[in-house]
Specification:
Blueprint (H helix, E strand, L loop, with lengths): L1 H10 L7 E17 L2 E19 L2 E7 L4 H18 L16 E5 L11 H16 L5 E19 L4 E19 L2 E12 L10 H16 L6 E8 L1 H13 L4 H5 L20 E3 L22 E5 L2 E2 L6 H6 L8 E2 L8 E2 L3 E4 L6 H8 L2 E13 L4 E13 L2 E6 L2 E6 H6 L1 E4 L4 E10 L2 E9 L2 E9 L3
Parallel strand pairs: 4-6, 8-15, 14-21
Antiparallel strand pairs: 1-2, 1-5, 2-3, 5-6, 6-7, 8-22, 9-10, 9-14, 10-11, 12-13, 15-16, 16-17, 16-18, 18-22, 19-22, 20-21
Length: 464
């Protein structure tokens, strides 16, 4: 396929300033969910095709096809060029792709045990027994579910500047979700394992134990102390730090949003955005994590991105176009969900780096407040820097010590205030937020993480 795309590129008549790339993308996968004793969904999907994207005189043309013969690919490329040529008559905004950045190579996720060779009965058993053991544990379990997902993708990218790249990705995940209810009180418990790799990442999941653990935790939370409400000192655990740095900060670092004036970080490169103890990175080259890959959907080699260094903003997430627009370097952030869509500035594995404080020291410095754990979702408004996240549980901090358990609770605030009000960074960062990130109708696997993070003046949304 690489040679075929190359031949098509060489047949096209383009000026030195014109740009075109052709991408072949193929993906297959399966997922199934057992909910409340029955299969809620079972799917096995395969998608594949060709996209051609042309930039002619400041205008983009884009077309896709499912046929993969050479003549059809050539026709699609010529159609993309024609669309761009027509569009160029109506656009004045300058758009360009630098010819400085050319990549060649081949990458693939390392897998030890190929999930496609695992008997489906074994996969079913993992989710069936997880859900069953949770559901049957107690009459207080209002809902139980377990989900298995795997996906396998291949991308081949060729452009007229010389990029020639092949890349494979393999992602797997097992999840459980339990809702406990007593009267009008309800408590949610969620957990998952997996990443970029094979069956070896989920093989250790013992379904009966996992289901029981979630059910016991939900029942325990029903009896827990009610969470407080108001402005207070907070310690965020690694999963909450992870969802915060991904959702609230990471999306604000996406260069397409910055250019569209939709980010609080516009124009802040080399400016202080947090305390000196805060450093933030995104590294898709880390092995085994959900957001790991070797080349992005534009063929750019992935690398570690330094977003914040000692409190100072250093980098955005760039596609080839946004890098040229801001006179910066592309950094492998152009990700596309499938062949039917164009790449966007996206994250991979985003995390706050480790500090030097033990949890006990953070609690001592907190004095009075809460220790929040196990993120459960939320929302963010990057243009204004507002966020709201829910947590599965927490603990009171009283007189500098971690004390009573509390149930589901929320927290909210302003992104840059959190980074500037951080009073302590834990000694070990953990990739503890396994997510699927949505943007512009596209979904890609990601990971977030960090250490325990002590922050003052956060709004906690409890019940008293």
């Amino acid at each position: 396929m690489l040679e075929k795309l190359d031949r098509v590129i060489n047949k096209l008549s383009l000026s030195p300033s014109d740009f075109i790339d052709i991408r072949y993308a193929y993906a297959m996968g399966e997922s199934f969910t057992v909910r409340n004793g029955r299969f809620d969904s079972v799917s096995n999907q395969t998608t594949g095709g060709i996209s051609a994207r042309a930039l002619i005189d400041n205008a983009w043309g884009f077309t896709t096809i499912v046929k993969t013969d050479e003549d059809s690919i050539l026709q699609a490329a010529e159609k993309a060029i024609k669309i761009a040529s027509i569009g160029s008559k109506y656009t004045k905004q300058e758009r360009r792709i630098s010819d400085e950045w050319v990549f060649e190579g081949k990458g693939a996720t390392k897998i030890l045990i190929d999930p496609r060779e695992i008997d489906k009965e074994l996969k079913f058993e993992k989710v069936i027994l997880t859900e069953k053991s949770a559901r049957e544990y107690s009459s207080k379990i209002a809902q139980a579910s377990s989900t298995y997902q795997e996906s396998h993708g291949q991308e081949i990218v060729v452009n007229n500047r010389g990029t020639r790249v092949e890349n494979e990705t393999h992602v797997i995940r097992l999840m459980k979700n339990v809702v406990g209810r007593e009267g009008t009180k309800m408590q949610n418990v969620f957990d998952s394992i997996g990443g970029a790799g094979g069956w070896e990442l989920v093989e250790k999941w013992e379904p009966e134990e996992e289901g029981l653990e979630a059910a016991k935790q939900s029942e325990k939370l029903l009896k827990a102390r009610d969470p407080p409400a108001g402005n207070m000192n907070v310690i965020m655990d690694p999963s909450l730090t992870g969802v915060f740095i991904h959702e609230a900060f990471g999306h604000a670092c996406e260069a397409d949003g910055v250019i569209a004036k939709n980010s609080i970080l516009e124009g802040k490169i080399n400016e202080k955005v947090g305390v000196e103890q805060i450093s933030v990175y995104d590294d898709p080259t880390l092995p085994g994590l959900r957001g790991s890959f070797e080349y992005d959907s534009e063929g750019t080699k992935a690398r570690k991105r330094t977003l914040v260094e000692k409190g100072v903003l250093k980098e955005y997430f760039h596609t080839l176009e946004t890098a040229a627009a801001l006179n910066m370097e592309p950094n492998g952030s152009g990700r596309a969900m499938n062949f039917n869509v164009t790449p966007q500035s996206r994250m991979g594995n985003t995390y706050v780096d480790s500090g030097d404080m033990k949890l006990e020291e953070l609690a001592e410095n907190t004095k009075e407040g809460v220790y929040l754990r196990n993120s459960y979702g939320g929302y963010v408004f990057p243009a204004k820097g507002q966020f709201y996240f829910t947590c599965q549980l927490g603990y009171y901090i009283e007189n500098g010590e971690i004390t009573d358990l509390m149930g589901n609770v929320g927290m909210s605030g302003m992104t840059l205030e959190v980074l500037k009000n951080t009073f302590g960074v834990g000694e070990k960062w953990v990739p503890d937020f396994l997510g699927t990130c949505g943007k512009g109708g596209q979904w890609v696997p990601v990971t977030g993480g960090g250490p325990n993070l002590g922050v003052s003046n956060v709004v906690v949304g409890g019940t008293k």
